[in-house]
Write a structure and sequence with these properties.
Blueprint (H helix, E strand, L loop, with lengths): L4 E4 L4 H13 L5 E4 L3 H10 L11 E3 L3 E5 H13 L30 H13 L1 E5 L3
Parallel strand pairs: 1-2
Antiparallel strand pairs: 1-3, 3-4, 4-5
Length: 134
């Protein structure tokens, strides 16, 4: 697994759109996986404490720590800013896998103004940091 990793709610349309925007802004120089995908489920088992699923927020994961919610958003912005001219770069030789997004899997009502507002509020009010050794 190439770090950093963004874990997002792949059953939520606004969360999926957010993940697509992150992929575009970083020119794919981040591994993005869904909470509910087989890869997401197995990866979370290696970084989270036993029995904890981390579904209440998105996560920005480094080789030693997982930052959830607001803490993850701050790390994600710092990472994106650190990429030299990522938005204008045409370099596609990085080691990250191609990120795929499937909006047909989205099942929650996040496309409404209320849904987007609730998700946005959630990412700003929730925060958590977990140390791991992957």
């Amino acid at each position: 697994m190439e770090f950093p990793v963004l874990i997002y709610d792949d059953l939520c349309s606004s969360c999926t759109e957010f993940a697509k925007m992150v992929d575009k802004m970083t020119r794919g120089k981040i591994t993005i996986i869904g909470h509910y995908s087989p890869l997401g489920k197995s990866f979370k088992e290696t970084i989270f404490p036993e029995g904890y699923k981390g579904l209440e927020m998105s996560w920005f994961v480094t080789p030693t720590e997982a930052f959830g919610g607001r803490a993850g958003l701050v790390r994600l912005v710092k990472y994106a800013i650190s990429l030299p001219f990522a938005i204008f770069s045409r370099d596609t030789t990085h080691p990250y896998p191609k990120n795929n997004f499937d909006l047909t899997q989205c099942s929650t009502d996040c496309r409404t103004a209320k849904g987007v507002a609730m998700r946005s509020c959630s990412i700003l009010t929730n925060t958590k940091t977990i140390k791991h050794n992957t």
